[in-house]
Amino acid sequence: LALAMYASGLCAAGSIAFLYHDYCIIGAGPSGLQAAYFLQQAGRDYVVFERSHAPGSFFALYPRHRKLISINKQYTGKSNSEFNLRHDWNSLLSHDPRLLFRHYSRDFFPNADTMVHYLEDFASLLKLQVQYNTAIVHVTLEKDEQAWNGHYFLLTDQDRQIYKCSSLLVATGTWVPNVVNFPGSEYVEGYETVSINPEDFAGQTVLILGRGNSAFETAENILGVTNFIHMVSRSRVRLSWATHYVGDLRAINNGLLDTYQLKSLDGLLEGDLEDLAIIKDKKGKLHITLRFYLENRNASADIDSITLPQDELDNFATRAPYDRVIRCLGWKFDFSIYNRSLRMMPGKGNTNKYPQIKPSYESRGTRGLFVLGTASHSVDFRKSAGGFIHGFRYTTRAVHRLLESRHHGVPWPSTVYPITQLTNSIIKRVNEASGLYQMFSVLADIILLRENATAFEYLEEYPVGILAELEIQTGRKAPSGLFVVIMEYGKNFSGADKDVFYYNRAVGEAQHAWQSNFLHPVIYYYKRLPTEHEMRLRPPDWPLPRPDAVHHIVEDFLTDWTAPNAHILPLRRFLENCLSTDLRSFFAESCFLFAFTRQKLPPFCQQGYIRMQGLVGSQGLQRHAVEAGLLEDFTFTDSSSDTHPDSHQGSQDQLLKDHTIPLRPLQHLVNTKDE
């Protein structure tokens, strides 16, 4: 008896044993694998739970017609890998150049099966710690003051194995179909199960509920074989080229718009789906009516006795019966596995399909629970690309950096430069950084000024929504002011009702840069870090509170902000005004003259010439400077020739101008080592 009791005790103990990891990731989709990569590179203890037998199970099913709408641009004319990621919407971030998506497909819009293959290789080649065939069915909390966040996360799988984690990263995406219930909704077929064989729709009349890419993708597949297709949704169609939001209707799927506007039987209608009702007649045809027509009818009434809208309005738009009705309403987040103690609540309004999270991607209800990938899109819904691979690969990296600072004391990566490199640093980033470009208005580069503006510290791709928390979140200090570098569209350029092709839609002159419409860099200057209160009271549609100064770099048709007069000079002047300093570069002779004529040397001379650093002159350099109008040609100047008594004063005044500086290079001043 004693042995039996002991054995049963061991079994009971084994059944509640916890397997501990510092970090638990739910979901081995793109965002889950991206988070796993960063944790592995940092040497952290983590595990990824995936319910399927392979990563990227969503892409094994969707999109149903297998063509992705994320672009895969093979050629850009550039060899800069960071720049090329601006036009590669499928690759995850890694150190391995083999794991660029262009090596897997040459199609501009790749097949979804290729994405599945890519994600399998990403997980296997990088040896990520993914535990497959593990479905997490319940998540709850265990209070513990010694834990990182004051509690542990307890995860239970389908076999009742319990896992214990200090931090939880939810990367499950949105995969639960959106369903609208109304009388007759049982006759509706779902996007997730409807046939994808066009021949099954030959000669049929079809009604599609929804107006997103899945609805138009379905319509595109059967457009050539149906009698006609009608599409109903509560909102008007939103074209991605007008809204500049990649989740709206893409051109690759919009064939139905042609057949509608060119009067080829197909059409679009607006109406609240919850007000509809579907009635099936004896022939199997589906009739569309309105819910209120059915409210007072006898439950046993025959179909012929039911009033239809066309009985009162003989030109009712949907009076023709349909053979099939298809629901294409997208997906929502699965809240069912989370215990109430986690307070995982849906968002409000248009974001109710996502969980509520902070701009730091941390749950509003539970500290230490971060939402990654598509499910985190509430932060920038209909504003930026955070719901898609080419956006959340950067926000996932930002979350990892926040965790490194919070739990491991690793400050946000930064680089310190002398102040003379400020203009160059900004120009370099706005011309090649992919994170700023894809996550416009959400991620920004932060430039922290050192005392007396002699140097600066550069932080890349920080979430602007938590700018007020920068010192706490990054471990970096901002005692002397800061610049914020961000990318923005024009304030009134994007929208479903906007004409983005109107005449004179682009701005070309630097003095009108603030009116730029297309994506362009904007630099905000703050004398001190904005407060939480100021962040809450920022103007509508502004990513940041009102700054002490702001500068727009004028939009560029080639997105190449390197023009000396249109882009670089106005930026430098703006920075100089903010810092009350001279950020120009000078030849050695200029610095030599300034040393005798000024009380304070420009930073370039202080940090270069005075320290015996700088560009050594040569005949080739001098000839180039003369041809460019930067130097006078002193080649044939005779030292005994007449010189105007005021020539020295004239040269000094000329030095203060931006153009045609009559200076000689270093070799004319330093002839010997001793000198």
TrEMBL record:
SUPFAM superfamilies: FAD/NAD(P)-binding domain (SSF51905). Its cofactor is FAD. GO terms for molecular function: flavin adenine dinucleotide binding; monooxygenase activity. Belongs to the FOXRED2 family. It comes from Piaya cayana. GO terms for cellular component: endoplasmic reticulum lumen. It comes from the Eukaryota. The keyword Nucleotide-binding does not apply. This is FAD-dependent oxidoreductase domain-containing protein 2.
